[in-house]
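Please decode residue identities from the backbone states below.
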């Protein structure tokens, strides 16, 4: 219940056409790190429901960052492929 609004918002903001495992993982990490001191001391596993908007925004940010990182990795891979293709033309 907690990560899905943030995943949806993050995917929309990132303008991605799919939700990757990395995005779900980062959403889970963001949720796990969102407990405040009182919630940890109370032994809660999830943050209080009255904080869901704030938590969803944090999760969305982590999803956007994961999507940006995925794009970055794709671009780097393409650059490496082009460099490898051009290496055979290197002189000297």
């Amino acid at each position: 219940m907690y990560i899905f609004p943030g995943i949806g918002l993050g995917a929309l903001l990132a303008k991605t056409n799919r939700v990757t495992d990395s995005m779900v993982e980062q959403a889970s990490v963001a949720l796990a790190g969102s407990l405040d001191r009182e919630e940890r001391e109370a032994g809660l596993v999830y943050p209080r429901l009255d904080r869901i908007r704030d938590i969803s925004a944090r999760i969305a940010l982590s999803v956007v960052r994961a999507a940006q990182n995925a794009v970055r990795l794709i671009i780097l891979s393409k650059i490496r492929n082009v460099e490898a293709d051009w290496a055979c033309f290197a002189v000297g």
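Observation: The mean pLDDT is 89.
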